[in-house]
Amino acid sequence: MKNSFFSRFTPKEPKFFPLLKQLSDVLSDSAAVLVESLQHDLPAERADYYKRIKDLERKGDKLTHLILDELSTTFITPFDREDISSLASCMDDVIDGINSCAKRITIYNPRPISESGKELSRLIQEEAAYISKAMDELETFRKNPAPLRQYCSKLHDIENQADDVYEFFITRLFEEEKDCIELIKIKEIMHELEKTTDAAEHVGKLLKNLIIKYA
Amino acid sequence: MKNSFFSRFTPKEPKFFPLLKQLSDVLSDSAAVLVESLQHDLPAERADYYKRIKDLERKGDKLTHLILDELSTTFITPFDREDISSLASCMDDVIDGINSCAKRITIYNPRPISESGKELSRLIQEEAAYISKAMDELETFRKNPAPLRQYCSKLHDIENQADDVYEFFITRLFEEEKDCIELIKIKEIMHELEKTTDAAEHVGKLLKNLIIKYA
Amino acid sequence: MKNSFFSRFTPKEPKFFPLLKQLSDVLSDSAAVLVESLQHDLPAERADYYKRIKDLERKGDKLTHLILDELSTTFITPFDREDISSLASCMDDVIDGINSCAKRITIYNPRPISESGKELSRLIQEEAAYISKAMDELETFRKNPAPLRQYCSKLHDIENQADDVYEFFITRLFEEEKDCIELIKIKEIMHELEKTTDAAEHVGKLLKNLIIKYA
């Protein structure tokens, strides 16, 4: 039994920071593929990009489970277990969100994605970049929380921008789009993009809590 | 490091009950604004009410984070940390639900909200009132759990009423509404209202668990 | 106060394994009723099946709360509290998913459910069967994790099958279905079925974590 009384005192300290950084890289990669995918509108192209994003989603899933498994069997960790597992799970949620966007674009096959949709994908990519920078601060933010704090506020600002893009677009969509089935497709894809920007900001909220707890 | 070995013994006891009560007041306020908003159907009026509800949502968000932050850095609390954080988070979820309803009404701009929709908003307001009363019992329910228990069963009953209103309305909507885009708008707004009554009942479930654990 | 210092040492060990097994039986029952219900298309029949599933959902809800209540007041448990509560909550989520499917079929009243929809319901029933077998392993998997490990991989495979069925069907639905309101009904019911297969796989993920932690 790994978690028996004695094993709890066996020194065992996996490198959680490098693993979290790796996960943020997978997130950045899938965000980049999403942005690129919206430039291509043929069903076959959309299916290819979805496949690439799905592969990254599985890679992120494996990495997240590796982190959670290590945590559940490790006694000493740099932070509370929950803090690391939440960080991993929430980054995984962003990757899942990107996958949901690509999936819906492929199976709904809507008209070419609007400029607003492309803008949301770029905002997701920006958020991924700040999350990746944030992972580099985990070793050091206790002494110098300023950079991490700055990335969190960036994530917050980007999410507000995304809300405005989304709300403005959907208002116009309901005023102008008369093709009901096309409206269903676009509305749900845009909603999925917007939810993904929320998921990325949620990572920022977790990071802000780390600063409060540890810095 | 706030949570270092020594700091854990620094006496520090923020007033969690008043903070939870404040949060329940924000919930009651947004429920009241929602009920009033459904009396007004002009796009500009809807946008104004959404703005008011969004401001309350942000206020609730700040308050919730204040509670969670205090918890994460406090050693002694009246209950287990999780019990207080769940209570705060779930009240915040109800406020978020109200915000989602107002947001959709504004950006979808449907026909005047039905009598059933107004009824759901009144049920949300009733639930908010019972949650607010419940917050006044947190200091005392260990000795006298009867009032808190009563509020929980009220929340449960109201949620069942809301289910019936929702299911009856949606059944008729799909039988009668032929305008597909209008159906999409109404269906989703009604669903959001119904989900918000669920979120409020969830607060009741947490309170019931407190009685089981502590009374 | 049940959880006072002294009460924590009162021996008290409810039988969690039999309770979890009972919950998995409720899950298997509702899956069976769902599969059967899809053979019947009259509104009155659909309403009857929904009622039967709703009753099972309430039974599962009571059982889940009983488990969570016992946990919150029990000191010694076979696993960490969280592990048992997550297992119970996730099985309850699958039952809730089945209830959501039946509810939507009743209140939307779509055309007869497609062969793909019936296939998804059968996959849910298969998953319920593996979850039920898994509950029989909880006492013994520490010594012999092989069977439990096998059920987990089965749950994983079934979920992947469900994804393919869903994606293939929705792609065709958007290509072929011209009746917008019917498309809304079918799309959402199929999505609910697919989400329920996910919820069942999530139970498998929890079980895999138990193997990692304890076997």
From TrEMBL, chains A, B, C:
Domain of life: Bacteria
UniProt xrefs under Pfam families: PhoU_div
InterPro entries in the record: PhoU-like_sf, Put_Phosphate_transp_reg, UPF0111_domain
Family: Belongs to the UPF0111 family.
Name this polypeptide is given: Phosphate transport regulator
